[in-house]
Design brief:
It is a single chain. With 247 residues, this protein is of the alpha/beta class. It has a single domain (5-245), classed as 3-Layer(aba) Sandwich (Rossmann fold). It has helices at residues 65-77, 170-176, 189-202, 223-234, 241-245, and strands at 5-11, 17-23, 29-30, 39-44, 82-87, 143-147, 181-187, 206-215, 237-239. The strands form 2 sheets. The chain has a 7-stranded parallel beta sheet, with helices on both faces. The chain has a two-stranded antiparallel ribbon with strand order 1-2. Strand 1 and strand 2 form a beta hairpin.
Length: 247
C-alpha cells in the first residue's frame, strides 16, 4: 500500500483482530507546537481493564504508556495542568451486557445515551480493573476526573455524561486554570478520546488529539473512520507527540 498509514487493530466479540487502516494524509497534523500558558493535557482512561489482559482490552493499549509519561512530564515541567480521566462504573451499569438479559458483550444496542454496542463489565468501582495501570506515572497529574458513575447514564466524554446534561467537573477545572487549548491522548480513540475531543470543541476549547498516543476499540467496524471524520468536521486538530516534544 502506498502512502503513510496508521495501523489500528480492533477488539471483536469473537476476540479476533480486525485491522483498521487510516491514512495519515487524511489527517492534517500540526507541526512543532510547544506547550505554553493556557494549555493543558488530558490523559484518558489508562486503566487496567482497557489494557491487554483486561476485561475490555484495547489492542496495543499498553504500548502508548511510555510516550504518555513523556508528554505528561513535558506539561508538568512547564507547570501546565495534567488531568487523568477514569471510568468508574457501579456494578450493574447500564452499558454492561450483563445488565440486559439475553445480551452479550459487543451486541448492537441503541437507546437514549447508550450504545452503539454493549460492553463487558469493566472498570467497576473499587476493582483492580478500574485502577490506573501501574506503568502510568500518575505523579505528573494534578487532577483525576471520574466518569460513568451513574448507574443509568453511560459516559464516554471526559466533559459530559451521555445525557449531555450531567457534567463531570472537567470543564470547571480547566476554566479555573485558564485553559484555552487542550491536548488529549489515551483510550480509546473511537470512544472516550473521540467524545471528549468533540465535547471540548463544543465548550470552546481548541482541541488536539495526539494521534500516536491513542488506540481504538474498533467496534463496530466503522467506529474509527466515523470518529476521525466527525472530529475533523467538528474542528478537532491532530498532532503527533514528537511535534510536541520538538516544540
Amino acid at each position: 500500500m502506498g502512502g503513510k498509514y496508521l495501523q489500528y487493530v480492533s477488539h471483536k466479540e469473537s476476540n479476533s483482530l480486525e485491522e483498521h487502516t487510516v491514512r495519515l494524509e487524511d489527517l492534517i497534523c500540526e507541526k512543532c507546537l510547544k506547550p505554553a500558558g493556557g494549555d493543558a493535557l488530558a490523559v484518558v482512561d489508562i486503566q487496567n481493564d482497557f489494557i491487554p489482559g483486561g476485561a475490555l482490552a484495547v489492542h496495543g493499549g499498553d504500548s502508548i504508556i511510555p510516550g504518555i509519561n513523556r508528554i505528561m512530564e513535558v506539561f508538568s515541567t512547564a507547570d501546565l495542568p495534567v488531568i487523568l480521566t477514569q471510568d468508574w462504573h457501579p456494578s450493574g451499569h447500564c452499558s454492561f451486557a450483563s445488565a440486559h438479559p439475553g445480551k452479550k458483550p459487543y451486541d448492537a444496542f441503541k437507546s437514549e445515551g447508550l450504545g452503539p454496542v454493549l460492553w463487558p463489565d469493566h472498570c467497576v468501582q473499587g476493582s483492580p480493573g478500574a485502577e490506573f495501570h501501574r506503568d502510568l506515572d500518575t505523579r505528573f497529574a494534578q487532577a483525576v476526573i471520574r466518569k460513568g458513575y451513574h448507574r443509568d447514564i453511560d459516559s464516554y466524554s471526559g466533559f459530559l455524561e451521555n445525557d449531555l446534561k450531567t457534567r463531570t467537573g472537567l470543564d470547571g477545572y480547566l476554566k479555573s486554570r485558564g485553559t484555552k487549548r487542550l491536548f488529549i491522548c489515551g483510550l480509546a480513540l473511537d470512544y472516550c478520546v473521540f467524545f471528549t475531543a468533540v465535547d471540548g470543541v463544543g465548550l470552546g476549547y481548541e482541541m488536539y488529539v495526539i494521534t500516536d498516543l491513542a488506540r481504538p476499540v474498533g467496534s463496530p467496524p466503522d467506529s474509527v473512520s466515523r470518529a476521525l471524520k466527525t472530529m475533523t468536521d467538528k474542528g478537532v486538530r491532530f498532532i503527533r507527540s514528537a511535534d510536541i516534544l520538538a516544540g
